[in-house]
Design goal:
Two copies of one chain form a homodimer.
Chain A: H1 3-18, H2 23-39, H3 41-60, H4 66-72, H5 76-91, E1 99-106, E2 109-117, E3 120-124, H6 131-141, E4 145-149, H7 155-171, E5 179-182, H8 187-192, E6 200-201, H9 207-215, E7 229-233, H10 239-251, E8 260-266, H11 267-283, E9 287-290, H12 292-297, E10 302-303, H13 306-309, E11 317-323, H14 326-336, E12 341-345, H15 349-358, E13 363-368, E14 385-387, E15 395-397, E16 403-414, E17 430-431, H16 436-443
Parallel strand pairs in A: 3-4, 3-6, 4-5, 7-8, 7-12, 8-11, 9-10, 9-11, 12-13
Antiparallel strand pairs in A: 1-2, 1-17, 2-16, 14-15
């Protein structure tokens, strides 16, 4: 048996036990993990220092960028942040055991649809060592086993963080084997092939990295490869609002997936709007690339090519296109977008509705900045990721995205034969308000 | 461009329009389809007769079984059933536009999580020609485009049914291209590779057939390859109930996925229980295959081998195993089962709870027959299928399984910058009772 298969088998076994641990025991384990990490700040920083030194050598040889090395680096404050983040996950509501539906099928025959963990998660991530404790905490909270594979650049940091999470959780009574670390790069391929044992992959990293995972595994992937977000300024837009939102969407934070990359502008408002936003963009150092018609208005900007419509800059660059009609904007977004987040600025409700319904993205906004698309801002608590797929979970995903459900049928010796034939009984199919947790707690001795 | 790719592209385009058709227009189209099918009963039966004649030739040559040919055959009554089924889909509640969550993020900034179609479904099925109108109706009701591929044995029946559904729906104003038929067998491979354009596969057919599809496509598959269901008779079982449920689970209908295939019996009750159920099974002509200990009690039955624990008989056969403890039953089910449906018979609530929580199947039952696991009996309306996967939809799946959701953010010029920095505003994150449909209808002029 390959090493990864052995680990996946252990994770699978532990998952069955972990699924039935109490809310309290999972939360206590999280608190313990947070304390253990805080107590071991020194050792964590030492291990991290070794990783950083190694990375700096590669930086000198031009293999890494400074930004890459910066992301790798931990500090005492960052370790405290990690501990705090884990405690905040403990404080969230238990995503397990929620009654999603409850029905009486017939007298004394009841159906409960109840949230349960998915099983085994696979988490593959690059550089930032804070991903390991974060994903571990989310997995534990949601009752899932997790197999972790970090980037080789953070090997020593990941190793010690893994050890601390594992020790603290097992000391707190969480079933051994629920957390697994893969270290060799060649083992990633093995993990991607474990579709019999791993239920969901949650990759973190570059677009190329996520695409590679999506294209090389039959395991479902939660996440997004890119966020190519648009703001469409309609002819019926409020001018001040259009400028404000277009500015925020691009400038507030450029390196994130929900930043705007393309501005679509209705031709009727372009002459008025473009000079105003251009002035603001220029002040903020944003490079503009425009279509031919845009460049008739903003004469000194670069030309946007077909490639620009497909590019997620993640930088202070924006492409601008003038469209003849709302429908052209919708078509452009559905053609070039990444189904992440897109926004319309307009005062006309009929046009807002057409846009909201016509754009096939996970978040579609009216008169708001694309930057709102985020688990924290949506009030989902801890964010697992933003998904641009349509199956299972879409848009910003909270802990709920790490759960599935199970049907419980509670009878009193009921058989299907009673509901067929000439004297068939009928089903009542009545919604009931009883919760599974009440039943569970009353049955638990 | 390959023929399948062209069809998928048309389906994808139509899906964007179909997603925004009104409840009324989809329902009216369904009624029109039902009428058109009924009116064309003669032509349907003629086409079907050609398929049946062809199949009978192959039956003579031993290529098909009689059961296979029977499933292929339509009659006037069956065509009426099809029309009635389509009308009943029209009568169901619209699965689109439901508000799954509604929140105020801040004053005049609202978030709505709203059910929307998935996009393009791929439906691959064998023999029974009533699958085509059923899947088409479910797709249309849920606003999804669908690409259909039926078995070559029903080619002529499928062709005319497809033509009628297409014509009637397009006459009723449903966007052209929403329904596509693939006829060549070699095109199945092409369809399985369309993971960029096809969002979900819904196969119907044999275990081998479903497995083939699961293993040869990166498109998510809704369904199950097999139903290897168990009934566990606990030492604390009520004897009459144990006999009744064990009988119903196996005998009520043997050829279905939710029929019981293995009986697990606690050793403390075996001596009492086994002779009683054996008598009933014998009367019903059920062949029993037992483990060694079972055969000490039921001396004349066949031996069960390791293979039996892995076999979905779909026939009047049951395997029987004596277990020492509840945990052994749970382990057996998690090892050999197919995550479909499993039931425990016991009067002890603590043991019921252990079983319900410990068995990792989509439906787990207490004191009820496994045969209840079914969309109709669960009150889900039209059943799309039963899923044993854990991602997206699990267990019996209704129309809801053909939908995903989309987030709408409705603001008034809100920008993220207001929520950061020293004077950051806070989010209110308050649940609100307003429904998306109200907003939509008031905005629709």
């Amino acid at each position: 048996m390959k090493s990864v298969e052995r680990k996946a088998t252990q994770a699978e076994k532990a998952a069955l036990k972990l699924a039935n641990t109490s809310t309290q025991s999972r939360d206590e384990a999280l608190i313990k993990i947070a304390s253990k990490i805080k107590e071991n700040t020194e050792s964590i920083l030492e291990a991290n220092e070794e990783d950083v030194e190694e990375a700096e050598k590669l930086l000198e040889r031009g293999k890494y960028t400074q930004a890459f090395v910066d992301r790798l680096k931990l500090s005492g404050d960052k370790v405290s942040d990690i501990a705090r983040m884990i405690r905040s996950v403990a404080e969230q509501e238990d995503p397990l055991g929620r009654t999603l539906d409850a029905k009486e099928l017939d007298e004394n025959l009841e159906l409960y649809k109840v949230s349960v963990p998915i099983g085994v998660l696979g988490s593959i991530f690059e550089s930032r060592p804070d991903v390991l404790p974060q994903v571990s905490a989310l997995s534990l909270k949601s009752g899932n086993s997790v197999i972790l594979k970090g980037g080789s650049e953070a090997e020593k940091s990941n190793k010690i963080l893994f050890k601390l999470v594992k020790e603290a959780s097992e000391e707190a009574g969480i079933p051994e084997g629920w957390i697994q670390l893969i270290e060799a790069r060649r083992e990633v391929r093995d993990l991607l092939e474990m579709d019999e044992k791993v239920d969901l992959l949650i990759p973190r990293g570059s677009k190329k990295f996520i695409r590679f995972i999506q294209e090389n595994s039959r395991i479902p992937v939660l996440g997004h490869a890119e966020g190519l977000c648009h703001i469409y300024v309609d002819e019926k837009a409020d001018m001040g609002m259009a400028v404000r939102v277009s500015f925020d969407g691009k400038v507030q934070y450029t390196a994130v997936c929900n930043a705007a990359e393309t501005l679509l502008v209705h031709r009727e408002i372009a002459l008025d709007f473009l000079p105003r936003i251009a002035e603001k963009y220029r002040e903020a150092g944003v490079e503009m690339r425009g279509c031919e018609r845009t460049r008739e208005i903003l004469e000194d900007i670069t030309e946007a090519t077909e490639d620009d419509w497909r590019t997620e800059y993640l930088d202070s660059i924006i492409s601008i296109k003038i469209v003849d009609e709302l429908e052209e904007a919708i078509d452009h977004i559905n053609t070039y977008g990444s189904k992440h987040t897109d926004s319309i600025i307009s005062e006309d409700k009929d046009r807002l509705l057409k846009f909201l319904q016509g754009v096939d993205s996970s978040s579609v906004m009216a008169n708001a900045s694309t930057r709102f698309s985020d688990g924290y801002r949506y009030g989902l608590g801890a964010e697992v990721g933003i998904s641009t797929g349509k199956i299972h979970a879409r848009g910003p995903v909270g802990l709920e995205g790490l759960t599935t459900y199970k049907y419980y049928v509670l009878g009193d010796g009921h058989v299907v034969d009673s509901y067929s034939g000439p004297e068939a009984k009928s089903f009542t199919h009545m919604e009931i308000s009883k919760k599974w947790r009440e039943i569970r707690d009353s049955w638990n001795d």
